Give the backbone structure.
Amino acid sequence: MTRSDLVSALLKRFPQLTLKDTELVVKTLLEAMSGALAKGHRIEIRGFGSFAVSRRPPRVGRNPRNGDEVLIPEKRVPHFKPGKALREAVDQGSPAA
């Protein structure tokens, strides 16, 4: 599902909204979530899952071309953990309630 698919689904569910308003809602929601994660906050959506920022420690990797060791620095990455309802819905192949 893409952003435009999400906008279309919202338009079908709420026909009183305009396309412009729906696009603004989706954009605002995604920006708020991105901003919270960038600040290191955790996002929890009951029945869906939670988003958090994980830390990957520095490590030594290898250059695949010549085999030289390369130092890979520490980084912070977003992490999603699905909720129980989402896991069960995916397992059963039905939409989450």
